[in-house]
Design a protein that fits this description.
The protein has about 300 residues and is of the alpha+beta class. It has 2 domains: about 15-175, Ribosomal Protein S5, domain 2 (2-Layer Sandwich), CATH 3.30.230; about 185-305, 2-Layer Sandwich (Alpha-Beta Plaits). It is about 30% helix and about 25% strand. The strands form 2 sheets. Strands 1, 2, 3, 4, 5, 6 and 8 form a 7-stranded mixed beta sheet that branches. Strands 9-10-7-11 form a 4-stranded antiparallel beta sheet, covered by helices on one side.
Length: about 300
């Protein structure tokens, strides 16, 4: 797990006794997909995928305060309040399974919305983990990940964090070694992408004939196992990029701009529309971001995280 509770470090959650029960503060980390393959449509309506998830240091902050019932306040980038918010739904789901009096949730948003970065899933995962400690529910990380799967395909990974191979809908996880540190330039265009719409377009064959970077999962896993940075970067790719870039040509245009500025590889996050460019070093990442930020205000620099 990769949560930073109030007063702690980027380490597994310590024992509850170290914290005041007046408040718990948790960082909810975004993710990127180092590789993403779509295997086909399932009988339950979802799609079978194979993906390598990776946590990055871009995060929302979640405050949990004991209360009665469930309250949610969203600050920063905004987003839905009440039951429409995945963080609220996470608290409600957990309360239904393991009754506790209630909680006030304050959610400070930094992760862009509808960006393919799993911001909502990260918030939901942070709420599950935090409530487990706030109310001493005694649940394991595996149990929390299983509950998270009821909320969304990315939530189980967000509970565990780090680097993992995701199969099924993305909820069947195998932990992997973390990559050598990667500096990323994240660029979100001024629109969102519906995941459901992206997969419908995939089913309709919109990715047919796409000649972009194909994900090479086996090579990526082998590179992670040996710490081969060059091999990992070369294997990065997202099969959904062909769909989203055809639905939104600006995605392809941003990719070209990142490459022209010196990115080693550019890959779309999830179903998009955010792209990340791998920079040789932090200084190069900051330089690229400064150039792009005038046209794309939601341009951020992030790095990969290790447990």
């Amino acid at each position: 797990m990769m949560y930073n509770l109030k007063g702690g470090k980027n380490t597994p959650i310590p024992t509850r006794e170290r914290f005041s029960l007046q408040e718990i503060k948790i960082r909810a980390y975004a993710k990127v997909n180092l590789t993403l393959e779509v295997k086909g449509r399932r009988t339950d309506g979802y799609h079978e995928i194979s993906t390598i998830f990776q946590s990055i240091d871009l995060h929302d902050t979640v405050f949990l305060i004991p209360g009665r019932g469930i309250e949610l306040e969203v600050r920063g980038r905004g987003g839905p309040e009440g039951p429409a918010n995945l963080a609220y739904r996470a608290a409600s789901l957990l309360q239904g399974k393991y009754p506790f009096p209630g909680v006030r949730i304050i959610l400070e948003k930094r992760i862009p919305l509808a960006a393919g970065l799993a911001g909502g899933s990260a918030d939901a995962a942070a709420v599950l983990v935090g409530l487990n400690y706030l109310w001493d529910l005694g649940l394991t990380a595996g149990a929390l990940a299983s509950i998270g799967a009821e909320l969304g395909s990315d939530v189980p990974f967000c509970v565990l964090g780090g680097t993992a191979l995701g199969r099924g809908r993305g909820e069947r996880l195998t932990l992997l070694p973390s990559p050598p540190p990667l500096w990323l330039v994240l660029v979100k265009p001024p629109f969102g992408v519906s995941t459901a719409a992206a997969y419908r377009a995939w089913d309709d064959g919109l990715a047919s004939g796409w000649e972009g970077d194909r994900p090479r999962e086996e090579e990526a896993v082998a590179a992670l196992m040996t710490g081969d940075r060059k091999g990992l970067v070369g294997a990065l790719g997202n099969a959904l990029e062909g769909v989203t870039s055809r639905l939104h040509p600006e995605v392809a245009a941003i990719k070209e701009k990142l490459m022209s500025l010196g990115a080693e590889k550019v890959v779309m996050c999830g179903s998009g529309p955010t792209l990340f460019g791998v920079a040789p070093a932090r200084e190069e990442a900051e330089r690229m971001a400064a150039v792009l930020r005038g046209e794309y205000p939601e341009t951020l620099v992030a790095r990969t995280l290790s447990p």
